[in-house]
Structure formats: C-alpha cells, structure tokens
Amino acid sequence: MSTIIVGTPVITGLGELFKAHGLSKKTVLLFDEHTRKLFGDELLKRLHHEDFQLKELVVPAREASKSFSVAYKLYGSMIEADVDRSWNLMAVGGGVVGDLGGFIAASYFRGIPVIQLPTTLLAMTDSSIGGKVAINHPLGKNLIGFFHSPELVLIDPSYLASLPLREIYAGMAEVVKYGFIADEPLFSFLDLHFNDITALQEPYLTEAVKKSAFIKDEVVTKDFRETDGLRATLNFGHTFAHGLEKLAEYRHLRHGEAVTIGMVCALFLSHNLGYLDRQSLERGLTLLQKFRFPKGLLKRRFLDIDRDQLLESMFSDKKKLNKKLRFVLLKKIGEAFLLEDNIDDQQVLKAIEEAQAQLSPVNLR
Ligand SMILES: NC(=O)c1ccc[n+]([C@@H]2O[C@H](COP(=O)([O-])OP(=O)(O)OC[C@H]3O[C@@H](n4cnc5c(N)ncnc54)[C@H](O)[C@@H]3O)[C@@H](O)[C@H]2O)c1
Ligand SMILES: [Zn+2]
Fold first, then answer.
1. What residue owns the CA closest to ligand 1's atom 38?
2. What's the whole-model pTM score?
3. CATH placement of domain 3-159
C-alpha cells in the first residue's frame, strides 16, 4: 500500500514529508515536455527552497518515450550526474512519464524509491497507483516491466485545469469503472455529478479523484500480483477495449475512449448472460451515455467496424488464457467478478451489436 495524498497544493512541505517517509532530499525529477513547461518551474522553486538536490530529466510527450532506448539514455544522464542509491525519482506527468519513471526507478542501481506526481486524470486515478511500471516493446505494449510500488503518490486535482477535455473524458472512464466494479455509492455520486466533475468543479472533482485512487489502492493491495482475480476486475470493459485499441492501431482512440465503449459492451454481456438485471443495465447505460467523443471518432472506430473483426482483434489480446477470452462482468452495480468459463462467440458478438445500437443516437457530435 502506498501513501496517497490528495490535496491542493500538494507540493508544499515536501522536505518534511520525504523525511517522514525515509526519503532523502536527492531527487531526480522526470517530466515530459508539457509537464515541464506547465509545472516544472514552480516545483523546482519549491524544492530548491527546501534544500533539495535535484537532477532534471525531460522526455518527449508521447507514448514512444516508454521505450528501452529512452530509458537507456536517461540511465546515462543519471550516472553522469552521480545519482546513486541514496537518491529517489519523482515522475511528474501522465501515465507515460509515470510508467517510464517507475521503470527506471525499479531498475536503476537495483532499485531506488519512486514518487508519483500524476498530472492527468488517468494517472491520478489509475496508472500512478498500484506499482505496475513498464516500457513498451515493438511487439507489444507494457511487456517489459516491474512491480515497483511508489513510496508516495501526490495528487493535486487542480493540475487538471490545463488538461484537454478529451483527456478528462478518457480518465473519467476509469473513474466510472470504479463505481461499476466496487462502489455503488460512488456510482450514484458520479451519475449525479458527471458534468460537475468533467467541468472540474470542486468539491466534486477532488471527491471523485480521491475515491478512485483509494479504490485502486485497496484492490491492488489485496491482490498485488494479480493472482486471485480481484485485481483483474480492474479490467472491466477492457477485453473489448483492448480489441478496439488494437484495431485503431493504438493511435486513433484514447485508452479511456475504448474503455467507455468496452464497458457498454460488458454491461450488455453481463445482462445477456443472466448476471445483471435489466434495471441495473439501464442505470449503467444511462451513465455511460454522458461520455462524449470527438466528432466522427465513435462512428469510425466503433459503429462502422465489423464485429467479427473486433472479436478477432480481442483474441489477440495478451490477457487471453489458452485462447479463452476473459471477461469481467457485473453481478450488480458495485460488484464485479472475473468469469473464467468460456463464453460463446455469439454472445460476445451480440453484446457488441447491442452496444453499437446503444451508442449511435446520442454520443455522436
Ligand atoms: N501502470 C499502470 O497501471 C497503468 C494503467 C493505465 C495506463 N497506463 C499507461 O498510461 C499511459 C497513458 O497515460 P495518460 O493517459 O496519462 O497519457 P500521457 O502521459 O501521454 O498524457 C497525455 C497528454 O497530456 C499531457 N499532460 C499531462 N498532464 C497535463 C496537464 N495537467 N495539462 C495539460 N496536458 C497534460 C501529456 O504531456 C501528454 O501529452 C499509457 O502508456 C498506459 O499504458 C499505465
Ligand atoms: Zn484502463
């Protein structure tokens, strides 16, 4: 379990906080170009003020930065700066910087502590928590990595003010997911305040971020290495989503957009297989109808696609087990389980078809 602190401003008094957690004031700061510009000066100023010794690293703001060649270069800069085991690394950015920073911290000098300072909604509620860190391989995403829990996760929801709306919705998909899989009251809260949260209104935003971060932390603490199926419930909607992302060549669809669509499919599947009653299905669909996609994207990337092709693409997902697709389904709002049985392809295709019919009328812009 990591220490998660949610507040505004979250970067005051870091000297004391680090000390309390046995962390030295020798910190490598990893940014991407955007987060360096947005948050770097203020953070550096505060840390200098508290007598930190700092080494700054900046990578391009793109998924391709999660690569071995980028990591290799950064190791070099750290060695040249005499960074040793007494240092720690703070990753300041979205999931890309968080995963890359965590990967470097886990491997450098056989492991130094990592502190996450997430700056996207997805990173605040998902990727910065749980200790999964990885880089990509040309043959697949996130294939090379570690479990390396952050010592501290420092979350300041006010950082989201500059985040594009598309990224807000993408992160919101994971937030809503927590309501579905683990917390009915959270689900009701999100349903009621969806527009407040996506408009970054307080106190709703902080409440949603806090609840999500703590649910993720609780789930991964109970099942750190994903052995008993609990952590796998975090993949609600994701079997469909991974298929969609692959079809979109991991470029045209944000992960959260694919998850939103995937959750619509998973709701229908849960209902059709007899696990979820009609009323809960309707409640779930009503909330998911509130998501918005960029113009034309939903049509091109989901409504117009061939269902068999999507199914095919889902089968090539790395999470498959002996060619079986694994689905996280709902018993009710707030309770999910991992279905281990084989599901008839026809059921999967039917769920996709129903989702296509469901999403078309309102979500196109
Ligand atoms: N480790 C995990 O458990 C886990 C879980 C989910 C996703 N991930 C990984 O997370 C990555 C995606 O993360 P992401 O969605 O945060 O994307 P990202 O890190 O690429 O950030 C998206 C964009 O927003 C910019 N940005 C960041 N903060 C900003 C701010 N406050 N204002 C304006 N712009 C800002 C970034 O520079 C970038 O251009 C993927 O690589 C995925 O594999 C990891
Ligand atoms: Zn996800």
1. 61
2. 0.96
3. 3.40.50.1970
Degrees to nearest 5, angle at CA 181 with 180 and 184: 55
Residue 321 has pLDDT above 60, yes or no: no
pLDDT tens-digit series, residues 64-115: 999 999 999 999 999 999 999 999 999 999 999 999 999 999 999 999 999 9
State which amino acid sits at residue 11: I
Alpha helices (runs of H) in the chain, residue ranges in sequence order: 14-20, 33-35, 41-49, 68-80, 95-107, 121-122, 165-182, 184-198, 204-222, 238-247, 255-272, 278-288, 297-298, 307-315, 345-363
The answer to whether 130 touches 166, Cβ cutoff 8 Å, is: no
- pLDDT of residue 336 exceeding 90, the answer is yes
SS3 197: helix
Q: Which residues contact 290 (CB under 8 A, 6 or more apart)?
A: 194, 195
Residue spans in the chain of domains classed CATH 3.40.50.1970 = 3-159
| Intervals of CATH 1.20.1090.10 along the chain | 164-363
Tell me the catalytic residues.
110, 132, 174, 216, 226, 231, 235, 238, 242, 255
Atom of ligand 1 nearest to the CA of 171: 15
**Residue 121 in tokens:** 């909604």
CATH superfamily of this structure's domain 164-363: Dehydroquinate synthase-like - alpha domain (1.20.1090.10)
Phi-psi bin for 181: left (phi > 0), alpha (psi -120 to 50), beta?
alpha
Q: Is the CB–ligand 1 distance for residue 293 below 6 Å?
A: no
Within 10 Å of residue 237's Cβ, how many Cβ atoms? Answer: 26
Ligand 1 lined by 63 (C-beta under 6 Å): yes
Of 262, 126, 290, the C-alpha closest to 192 is 290
Residue nearest to atom 12 of ligand 1 (CA): 95
